[in-house]
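Table S2 (continued). Query chain:
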Amino acid sequence: MLYGDLDGDGVEDIVLDSVEQGGGPVPQSYLDAFLYDGKGAWQRAWSATDPAPPGDPSAPAAVLQQAAPGSVSQDVDFLALVDTAGDGSSELAVGVLNLGAGPGPLDVWVIGFGPDGPSTEFWEETVQDGTLLAGANELRLQTPWFRPSDPACCPSRIEHQTIGFDPASKRVRVLHRTFTPVS
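Corresponding output:
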């Protein structure tokens, strides 16, 4: 559970992360954001199993897919509130790990909550796994980087990304990228 001002109204909102374990062979992850309506009630403003918020046409149909037998399992691996633009309202940063026989791709999402509702500010999928860390106004992503000749077990390098708000383009994007060789 996270608390923070998602919509910029000065009141902390609530983000809930949960997993249904007993509903079938594949656990179902859930993620919901509740905004205070100013009248003493909390309204669900977004659910990760609903269609993905508009903003990035290349993003998957939903942040979290509905669990089904034979499908890949998904787990909310990372969750943070980050004020990427420094405007006083936090964006929701989510790392969704896709699990099969081993760790699969990590979907990195940044969801904003403006007056028109939630929007996808950023989405990226890694090749395999990854680690996200949050700072005050940026995310840091470390992930294996594979050349076409690399075996699936052994990446050539580790990619380090800084993800944040770019004032020139007025959007969240990868601001800096470096690589460290794997020895």
